[in-house]
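L-threonylcarbamoyladenylate synthase
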Amino acid sequence: MWLMMDRIRQELENGGAVVLPTETVYGLFAKALDEKAVDHVYQLKRRPRDKALNLNIASFEDILHFSKNQPTYLQKLVETFLPGPLTIILEANDRVPYWVNSDLATIGFRMPSHPITLDLIRETCPL
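Tokens:
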């Protein structure tokens, strides 16, 4: 399994996309801060560019890093429901690249509970 994880890490570092399990489905992941990698995900999914992608993050601090005007209940929401099958939508700050959220004012955050996927996100955040 470690050899497989090394190949996955290498693929991500080289701007590729990988399929990883989440608690609900398998997802297509790439390094969110790499525009070419994200473009590759859009191409593979045949997803229109006006449909934003989520940021897959590993911690509450990651959410704070990429959002603004957070509600007062956000930390309680994260502690209660994440990691897990919930998307939290917040105002995006200027750290969110336009190629991830299609230049929208908001961004969705996911924190998958699958241990392998979550560990990989911790290493390469955000995906």
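The radius of gyration is 14 Å.
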